[in-house]
Design goal:
- The protein has 210 residues and is of the alpha/beta class.
- Helix content is 25%, strand content 21%.
- The protein is built from four helices and ten strands, in the order αβαββββββαβββα.
- The longest helix is centred in the last third of the chain and has 23 residues, at 177-199.
- It is globular, with a radius of gyration of 17 Å.
- The protein starts with a helix and ends in an 11-residue tail after the last helix.
Length: 210
């Protein structure tokens, strides 16, 4: 955190984190356990720890349970892994959930309704509900119909499939090209406005680069 806060583009005193996919749960964990975070954006992330154990001091958060039998192969030969990561709220899986109620920052959860990498809409709902259950309203949720997993910066090409290193093969990521492009433009605007509200202590305006 000290390293990040000393970046020459960081106005401080706190930082903002922009994350997507797996880095989403890492960003949530940073906000929950480390000071100095004012704003976190997670794009199609998970509200629980995924893939490997997360260690912080004497705490170990296990990864969410998976069921590879839930992976399917489509007619075109591409693998669909949306349901492989099991619901973090089911019995025996709760220990993997990141305790984001400990965080003092603001959150923006963005979820694509056609995300085929995993159920990011469910994860965003659970994250928001966990904050509500602890009396917090420090979050925003935005969902994008017909958009897929990789919501990139505006004007980047739609990525409907990709090699998945955790699976070892090409998987479908979802999304329709037009909806994906429109979602990327809208989300980038929202991200800039979100960080501007929660990081610009002097209310100055940054010139948009996109």
């Amino acid at each position: 955190m000290t390293f990040l806060s000393r970046g020459f583009r960081v106005k401080g005193p706190d930082i903002g984190i922009l994350s997507i996919s797996k880095s989403g749960d890492i960003a949530l964990a940073i906000s929950a356990f480390l000071p100095g975070v004012a704003a976190v954006v997670t794009i199609n992330g998970c509200n629980a720890n995924t893939q490997f154990s997360l260690h912080y001091k004497d705490m170990v958060i296990p990864p969410t349970k998976m069921d590879l039998a839930k992976a399917t192969v489509r007619g075109d030969g591409l693998m669909d892994v949306k349901d492989v990561i099991l619901d973090p709220s089911i019995k025996g899986n709760e220990a993997s959930v990141i305790p984001i109620e400990r965080a003092s920052c603001h959150f923006l959860f963005a979820a694509s309704e056609d995300d085929r990498n995993w159920n990011s809409v469910l994860f965003s709902k659970q994250a928001a509900q966990r904050l509500r259950d602890h009396g917090k309203e420090n979050f925003e949720v935005v969902r994008y119909p017909k958009a897929g997993h990789f919501l990139d910066v505006p004007f980047m090409p739609h990525c409907p499939t990709s090699f998945h290193p955790a699976v070892g093969t090409v998987v479908v990521l979802g999304g329709e090209q037009k909806a994906q492009s429109e979602a990327q433009v809208d989300l980038w605007r929202r991200i800039r406005e979100f960080f501007s509200r929660h990081l610009n202590n002097d209310n100055s305006q940054f010139k948009a680069m996109l």
